[in-house]
Design goal:
- There is one protein chain.
- The protein is of the alpha+beta class.
- Helices cover 46% and strands 20% of the residues.
- The chain is elongated and about 65 Å long.
- The two termini are 28 Å apart.
C-alpha cells in the first residue's frame, strides 16, 4: 500500500510539473525536479503516456497529454453549479453579464454565464465561448494570476466592439486557473464594479476550496 501511494504521489507531482511547463520539459529536467532516477522516472512516464496523460514531442520534450481534457470537461459542470449563485448575485448587483472563465492552455473558456434580469440591454456572452488569454479582462486576470498578481483587470473593445469588461482571478483551489468578471455595453465604473468582482472572486474561491 505504501509503495502504491508513493507511485501515485509521484505521478500526481509529475502531472503538476507538466501543467506548469507550457513549453514542455526534458525527461532529465523532470526526473531531477522529482528527485527520481531515470529508470524510475521512465516507468512513471510510460504509464502516463499509455493512459494519454503525458506525451512527447518530436524533440523528446514531455507535455501534458490530451487525456487530461476529458477530466477537465467532467469538472466544468461542477464548476458551473458552484459558480451560479455567486454569478447571479454579481450580475444583478452590477447590472452586467457575469461570467466564470477557466484557462485551457493559452485560451480562456467561459464555463458559466449569468445575465442580469432587470437591464434593458446587456451583453450576450455564450457559455463555451473561447478566446486567447491575451485578449479580454477575463484572460488578462488569469495571466496576472500566473505572475502572482491579484487585483482586477479592465479592458474595452478587445473581444467585442463597444463592450467593457472587468475581471479578477480566483485564488484557489490549487491547480485551477480561473477568473470571475462582468461585461457590459454601458458605462463601467471600476471603482464600483471592481470591489464587487473582487468580492465575488473571494466568495467563489471559498466555495471551491
Amino acid at each position: 500500500m505504501a509503495e502504491s501511494s508513493q507511485t501515485m504521489e509521484r505521478g500526481l507531482r509529475l502531472l503538476r510539473l507538466l501543467a506548469d511547463g507550457h513549453g514542455g520539459r526534458t525527461p532529465s529536467e523532470l526526473a531531477g525536479a522529482l528527485g527520481l532516477s531515470r529508470p524510475v522516472f521512465y516507468r512513471l512516464l510510460t504509464t502516463l503516456q499509455s493512459e494519454g496523460f503525458a506525451r512527447r514531442d518530436g524533440r523528446g520534450r514531455v507535455h501534458l497529454g490530451f487525456g487530461v481534457l476529458a477530466l477537465a470537461r467532467a469538472v466544468h459542470p461542477l464548476l458551473r453549479a458552484a459558480a451560479l449563485p455567486t454569478l447571479r448575485a454579481l450580475a444583478e448587483g452590477a447590472g452586467a453579464t457575469a461570467h466564470l472563465t477557466v484557462a485551457e492552455g493559452d485560451d480562456g473558456l467561459a464555463v458559466a454565464v449569468v445575465e442580469p434580469s432587470w437591464t434593458d440591454m446587456h451583453v450576450a456572452y455564450r457559455e463555451g465561448a473561447r478566446h486567447p488569454l491575451t485578449s479580454g479582462a477575463a484572460g488578462l486576470a488569469i495571466l496576472a494570476l500566473r505572475e502572482g498578481r491579484g487585483g482586477y483587470q479592465v479592458t474595452e473593445g478587445q473581444l467585442q466592439e463597444g463592450a467593457r469588461g472587468l475581471a479578477a482571478p480566483l485564488s484557489g483551489p490549487p491547480g485551477l486557473e480561473a477568473s470571475v468578471g462582468v461585461v457590459t455595453f454601458g458605462p463601467l465604473d471600476s471603482a464600483v464594479a471592481g470591489p464587487r468582482v473582487l468580492a465575488a472572486a473571494e466568495d467563489l474561491s471559498r466555495a471551491l476550496a
